[in-house]
Amino acid sequence: MSDNQQSWLIILCFYFGQWPTWMNFFVESCKWNPDVHWRIYTDCGEPENRADNVTFVPVSFADYKALVRERLGIAFDPIHPYKLCDLKPSAGFLHEKDIADYAFFGYGDIDVIYGNIAAFYGALRADFDVLSTHPERASGHLLVMRNTPALRHVFELIPDYRKVLALPHHTGIDEAAFTQVLRTASGSRGLFVERYSTVLSARGWHDGTMNYPQRWFWRDGRLTNDRDGAREFLYLHFMRWQSARWINDPPLPGEAAWVGRDIIHLNWRRAAAGFCISPDGFTRIT
């Protein structure tokens, strides 16, 4: 049986430039979700860690922009790859042939470590067509949709989407303007639930405080932390540790903790035995 027949979900990603230092750990967390397939369009080559359910599609940034122009019929020539985030709502249409064999498709980021996806979404697939990890908006770091013509084309309902995508700068259309049309299209079959994936988010932790977990533990495909005992989480989005782009005002302790620092403190080849993610980076579980 092929990977496509075994997998219910394909997650599309695009990344250009140079792999982040944690990429091998990202792949390891994907590997432990064998019923999900990742397809990553990139000019970075393949990382050292390999997984049967992670496919890297070699393509230059220039050629990918040409694909967008051809598929969407728009002027599209941004300088910075970060603009590609605006394309996420159209990902299912852009790569319609690549997702044809899957019941669901989605898009995601690579500054995440996944837990056990099936434990969260396995029982929901029959009742919902859209799965977002935030209650108030489409979640740009992981959004899952049923593979239907309507949802592959739902991005076309975004007002002036052609003009917005043609702008040279990033607009955040994937979380802002896309949310309303997606809610309307999915109705009661859209599930928008906070999964508490992003550390140091201004929304606060599930207990209503700003006291976020500081240490997260990945073991055997399951993700826990130092505050919540055996409770598992869908994924960890460490955006606010690895970047200064979205710092709170005033900043929270630990924001941009990884910027300019060596954060890899164990060999990725030992990742299968488990690892810890914290403001110190990737370390052994102690």
Gyration radius, in Å: 18 Å
Low-confidence residue ranges: 1-5
Approximate shape: globular
Give the mean pLDDT.
Answer: 95
Q: What proportion of the residues form beta strands (DSSP E)?
A: 15-25%
H/E series: HEHEEHHEEHEEHHHEEEEHEE
Number of helices: 9
If strands are numbered along the chain, what order do they take across the biggest sheet?
3-2-1-4-7-6-8
Overview of the structural elements:
This protein starts with a helix and ends with a strand. The radius of gyration is 18 Å and the shape is globular. Strand 9 and strand 10 form a beta hairpin. Helix content is 20%, strand content 20%. The protein has helices spanning 3-6, 23-31, 61-72, 91-94, 117-121, 149-152, 161-166, 177-186, 239-242, and strands at 9-15, 36-42, 54-58, 104-108, 112-114, 130-132, 142-146, 190-192, 216-219, 222-225, 235-237, 275-278, 281-283. By secondary structure, the protein is α/β, with parallel strands linked by helices. It is built from nine helices and 13 strands. Residues 1-5 have low confidence and may be disordered.
